[in-house]
Amino acid sequence: MVTLEWTGALLGLLGAFLLATNSRVSRYGWYAFLAANVAMIGFAIGIDARGLLVQQIGFFATSCLGLCRAQVGPQALVKPE
Asked: pLDDT 10s digit of each residue in the chain, 81 long?
């Protein structure tokens, strides 16, 4: 459980740092957030923390939205005509 907790914490910090740089690599912070959310969801399930689980599911959804808006996901590979 400790591994999931620390992985989630460090990836969350990395995501925040990348977005705060406001550079061309900032959009990849959403991947770090997404990975952090997955780790923290696993951690919340492992310690039976339902409030944390609900929060991380919500953050997972906002991370997916961030990926879509930053055009980092698969849709970024499709060139507009």
From this structure: 899 999 999 999 999 999 999 998 999 999 999 999 999 999 999 999 999 999 999 999 999 999 888 876 555 555 555
The answer to whether 72 and 28 are in contact (CB under 8 A) is yes
- Domain membership flag for residue 80: no
Q: What is the C-alpha separation between 11 and 31, in angstroms, rounded? A: 9
Is 79 inside a domain boundary?
A: no
Taking residue 9's Cβ as centre, other Cβ atoms within 10 Å add up to 14
pTM of the model: 0.84
21 domain-assigned = yes
Q: How many domains does the chain have?
A: 1
